[in-house]
Specification:
about 200 residues, mainly alpha, elongated
Length: about 200
């Protein structure tokens, strides 16, 4: 009797190899995102945004472990060396110009939030890709991936709220940030009360 891997093997010879590369690229990105959000949570630990960043950091770490679980189920080895390269690149990125030579700039918050949001949008694309793959591969828990995609959408909404607050802080001092309203992307998202936040540097 053929194994699950043989039963669901793609008819395209390179598909398995490409899937390994694809998942490991996302794993490497998740490692960089995990390092970034944890550092942001530490920087703002005592500020009003600290609790939200800590909660996001916990979720992003859980999402990374979920990805590892999916890779294990698919028989895809984790290339940790690639993840290490991405984490090193994230550390180098801290030296980017932000308008100040020594002290941390409010612009740092904005740039980091935009980077983190882009990363979560990439993660949402990953979950949607895996949801499509799950239609022909029972090794992937389709319902679990669906929940992960929903959570990524909520994370994007939260990051956009924080990003708008950082815009007001860095580029429009004294302005009150406009709460973000999520755009319907094919299904209705849950509407949660928005909390106005203020960044401190």
């Amino acid at each position: 009797m053929p194994s699950d891997h043989q039963r669901f093997r793609s008819p395209f010879p390179d598909a398995d190899r490409l899937l390994r590369i694809y998942l490991n690229d996302h794993y490497a990105g998740s490692s960089a995102g995990d390092a970034l959000v944890r550092r942001m949570a530490r920087v703002h630990d005592r500020g009003p945004t600290g609790p939200r960043l800590r909660a996001l950091a916990e979720e992003i770490a859980e999402d990374r472990e979920s990805l590892v679980g999916i890779m294990t189920a698919l028989g895809v080895p984790v290339m940790r060396a690639r993840a290490l390269v991405m984490r090193c690149a994230e550390k180098v990125g801290r030296a980017k110009l932000n308008g100040r030579l020594v002290s941390r700039s409010p612009l740092s918050d904005l740039l980091e939030l935009e980077s983190l949001r882009l990363g979560v949008e990439g993660k949402l694309a990953l979950w949607r890709s895996l949801s499509e793959i799950a239609r022909g591969d029972t090794r992937i828990d389709a319902e679990a991936v669906h929940h992960l995609a929903d959570r990524a959408e909520r994370q994007i909404d939260q990051l956009e709220d924080l990003r708008l607050a950082a815009v007001a802080m860095a580029l429009a001092p004294g302005a009150r940030p406009t709460p973000h309203r999520p755009v319907d992307a094919g299904r209705q998202r849950s509407h949660r009360p928005r909390v106005k936040v203020r960044w401190v540097s």
